[in-house]
Design a protein that fits this description.
- It is built from two helices and nine strands, in the order H-E-E-E-E-E-E-E-E-H-E.
- It is α/β, with parallel strands linked by helices.
Amino acid sequence: MSEPMTTPRFALPLLAVAQAQKEVTHNEALSMIDALVQTVVEAGPLDAPPAAPAAGQCWIVGGAPTGAWSGQAAALAIWTAGGWRFVVPRIGMRAVRASDGAIQRFGGGGWNAPGSVADPVGGATIDSEARVAIAAIISQLATHGLLIPA
């Protein structure tokens, strides 16, 4: 039997000519698309799968995965009615982490979280207006998930 046909980017299953039970392949593809469009992950990177996932929830798999996630480092883990589905991320892929609203970005071999930036302190000359402006910029970057305030 030949290998199943898949899309080139995310390996979504494609229907084959004269395929029996096309709804199985079609539903699998829709489940994956549902998780990948406007990707939101519950948390991550995590190495151990959650104990009681709900259908449609996603996580970023950590660098040393265990249990059902073994061998899936850095993948997106999606819980479906049929069990775990894994998607290999592509460079530039983004996911919003629901636990804190931070945008996770895949690149350089792993998922990168935004860095933290503290409000300005110290210095010989204190400019309170500049500090208020800098704090406002940091706040807006955090609101957009680009920074985590310290």
